[in-house]
Design goal:
The chain is an alpha+beta fold. It contains 22 helices and 22 strands. The strands form four sheets. A six-stranded antiparallel barrel has the order 1-2-3-6-5-4. The longest helix has 17 residues, at about 350-365. The protein starts with 18 loop residues before the first strand and ends in a 24-residue tail after the last strand.
């Protein structure tokens, strides 16, 4: 047995687990093959797509977002799935022109397809290596029958193309093989894609003609094409090439420089055999049991070309060098050299596996946590593309982690000549600070171990941890609190409202701020009045002001947040929802229930523990009332969806039953129209919801095409309405309210 070879019995050593069958338009035959990359992405040849569409094989025209039928030979034959074309790299000549019929070689010719969901096991990704002359490779017919394999040898590798020669026995590469992986049996990895074959002319065959020669595109060329077209997210590409032979030309000098530190750290063959054996086990590669050790050069070759091999080896070496300054220096040097390669990555296999599990769990519970922690931890850096969405799913965590691993320093000072704390560890510290209980403790212990392996000075980690703890304890500074009541009389002009405004003093008492006659005002007039009151508030902190607007039940959809309070001389518009935590209240409904006050207080006090309830077009008003009386008796948050009429009934039920927090999209026309509320306003700390809604409003005011107008009832039980707000019902006067 040789060192670091892929085990023959391992399914990952068999490319049929990633083989894709591309079916013809009527599903009656096989048009070609493909290969599963990762996530929901598949790769095939553009000319295979053309074949399915009945077009000329090398037609360069992009067919657009078409859908093809595909299947996986390792699954049931009847398990046919739809795959949408998401990236088209057309066939082209060497001069970037069209390819003539009968051409023997061309470039490009790739197509990336996307499934609706990830395929189940045993479908899985394969490792990829560079194609090289002399490799013995195997290809399969797209339908994947075990007997359909064709064994060939890379006889020549020239300018990105490998010419493949097969013996005059067994199967030959033919129609239906294009787009499938070329599997190097010795390396246990894929090295390219089948592209075409070179056949004898149609006239009489002679011994001078080419026999069983085909050609394929080497993985290094495929990688260049995919990156140039931005066809696959970079973290997916970075995680694909990971085999023990994947040493790129630019990494060869790095490999040579690794030999010195490895001799110092593992010069003893016994120690080298022990650490190499442990490394091989982690990587799923072979290790002899006869006590022999791999050469230092072979170990360096593995570290340069195998994903996570270097940090995994460093993880086992770190305890050995903890009290050895020279050993620590050599390990630091080895890790620094690893950062010059594309395969080393930051985390070991075990560290990565553990962190992925914890982050997926946290993201499932709070989709906005990772985004908030990264924003706070890295305030001066532009977040990676995968983290720019405020709401993440567990499936997106690997991409986020993959990008954060590439950021090796957080930019803050560290003790002299010690490594900088990686940005990822800083983010983990902020996650731990925001997470209570055992999970937070586990994340801190993980951070301690990784920092010790990397040689991070303890004081640097303690400083970042203290920053994270201060951030987690920091409440948003309280701003001014403005209470507003709107009402209308029957004879008031349309779109005009009577307005009463109070400002809460720091001691909690209320001061009425509007003098003069009680006259109807337009929305912009009321907005300017509120801005004047908020701007004149003293000793109320530097935070965003809370404006709580009490409205009658029929005015809950009133777009108060959109009222523009900008003065005549101001250059920029100033909608209220952009500058304030603009929330609604409707005390009249609650007062109609004999238990309304008690319901409000109970639910408000349980807001941190209770989850949210979604009420949509499938929920009747009586059904909602039943839920709020039984299984959701303490629920404080309800998300309401549906058309305006149905939505209005559900909102009234919530408020009458003392639900203090109700969120809906005022622009929602019906089920399935526009993004769901939980995507518009991501989950997070309950008390930060008004701020998250304000963020959304700032965005939608700037982009009218965003179909979101969030309305938020925020009936803070600790912010009671002053007695002055409890006015007499206008209907009892000479005029009738509407």
């Amino acid at each position: 047995m040789t060192w670091f070879a892929a085990p023959r019995g391992d399914r990952s050593a068999d490319a049929r687990g990633a083989l894709v069958r591309v079916l013809s338009a009527n599903r009656s035959s096989t048009a070609g093959a493909g290969v599963y990359l990762s996530g929901r992405r598949l790769l095939t040849c553009a000319h295979v797509v053309n074949t399915v569409l009945g077009r000329r094989s090398l037609n360069p025209q992009d067919p657009g977002g078409i859908t093809l039928d595909v299947s996986f030979p390792v699954l049931s034959a009847g398990d046919v799935r739809s795959a949408r074309l998401v990236s088209w790299i057309p066939p082209r000549s060497h001069q970037y022109g069209p390819v003539d019929d009968g051409a023997l070689r061309w470039e490009g010719d790739l197509a990336v397809l996307e499934l609706d969901e990830e395929p189940p096991p045993p479908v899985g990704s394969v490792r990829w290596l560079e194609m090289a002359r002399g490799q013995e490779v195997r290809a399969w017919y797209g339908a994947g029958q075990p007997f359909s394999y064709a064994d060939v040898r890379v006889a020549v590798y020239d300018d990105g193309v490998g010419y493949l020669d097969g013996q005059l026995s067994g199967a030959a590469v033919d129609d239906g093989y294009s787009g499938g992986p070329l599997w190097s049996m010795g390396d246990g990895a894929a090295v390219g894609l089948v592209m075409g074959r070179i056949t004898a002319p149609d006239n009489g065959f002679s011994t001078q003609h080419t026999v069983r020669r085909s050609w394929g595109l080497g993985w290094q060329s495929v990688l260049v094409e995919l990156r140039r077209a931005e066809a696959v997210p970079e973290p997916h590409l970075a995680g694909l090439w990971a085999g023990p032979s994947a040493v790129f030309a630019e990494d060869e000098s790095v490999r040579d420089m690794m030999v010195g530190p490895l001799h110092t750290l593992l010069g003893d063959p016994v120690a080298r055999a022990a650490h190499a054996g442990e490394l091989a086990e982690q990587l799923g590669l072979s290790a002899p049991s006869d006590g022999t050790a791999p050469s230092v050069e072979k170990l360096a070759h593995l570290l340069c070309g195998t994903e996570r091999a270097l940090p995994t080896l460093a993880e086992s070496l770190a305890p050995k060098v903890v009290d050895d300054p020279r050993g620590r220096a050599e390990l630091d040097r080895l890790l620094a050299l690893g950062r010059l390669t594309g395969a080393a990555r930051l985390l070991s296999i075990a560290e990565h596996r553990m962190l992925i599990g914890k982050l997926e769990h946290l993201t499932q519970a709070d989709p906005g946590l990772l985004h908030r922690a990264a924003t706070a931890a890295l305030p001066y850096l532009e977040l990676p593309r995968s983290l720019q969405a405020a709401r993440l799913t567990p499936a997106e965590v690997p991409d986020v982690l993959g990008e954060l691993e590439t950021w090796y320093g957080d930019g803050s000072p560290v003790p002299d000549e010690t490594p900088r704390l990686p940005a990822l560890l800083r983010v983990v510290e902020y996650l731990a600070a925001a997470t209570e209980g055992l999970v937070g403790q586990v994340l801190r212990e993980w951070s301690n171990r990784v920092a010790a392996r990397l040689g991070i000075h303890p004081s640097a980690l303690r400083e970042r941890r203290a920053d994270a703890e201060r951030w987690s304890r920091q409440a948003a500074p309280a701003g001014a609190r403005i209470l507003v009541e709107l009402d209308r009389y029957a004879k008031d002009p349309a779109h005009h409202y009577r307005c009463s405004v109070w400002r809460l003093r720091p001691d909690g008492s209320a001061a009425r701020t509007v003098d003069g006659p009680d006259r109807p005002r337009t929305g912009p007039e009321i907005a300017r009045l509120i801005r004047e009151v908020a701007g004149g508030a003293k000793d109320t902190g530097d935070g965003v002001a809370l404006v709580a607007v009490s409205v009658p039940p029929e005015a809950l959809d009133l777009p108060v947040d959109e009222w523009d309070g900008a003065g005549a001389g101001e250059y920029m518009p100033a909608p209220l929802g952009e500058d304030f935590h603009l929330v609604l209240r409707c005390p009249r409904l609650r007062r109609r229930s004999p238990t309304g006050a008690a319901d409000l207080e109970r639910r408000w006090n349980a807001r941190q523990q209770s989850g949210s309830l979604l009420a949509d077009h499938r929920t009747g008003d009586r059904t909602l009332a039943g839920l709020l009386k039984t299984t959701h008796r303490d629920t404080a948050r309800v998300l309401v969806d549906g058309n305006a009429q149905h939505r209005g009934k559900l909102v009234l039920v919530c408020l009458a039953m003392g639900v203090p927090i109700v969120l809906w999209n005022r622009a929602g026309l019906g089920p399935g129209e526009g993004p769901p509320l939980d995507a518009i306003v991501p989950e997070g700390p309950v008390d930060a919801l008004p701020e998250r809604v304000r963020y959304v409003r700032v965005r939608v005011y700037a982009d009218n095409e965003v179909a979101a107008r969030p309305a938020l009832v925020w009936d803070d039980a600790e912010l009671p309405l002053p007695d002055e707000l409890q006015l007499a019902d206008p209907s009892e006067g000479t005029e009738h309210a509407i």
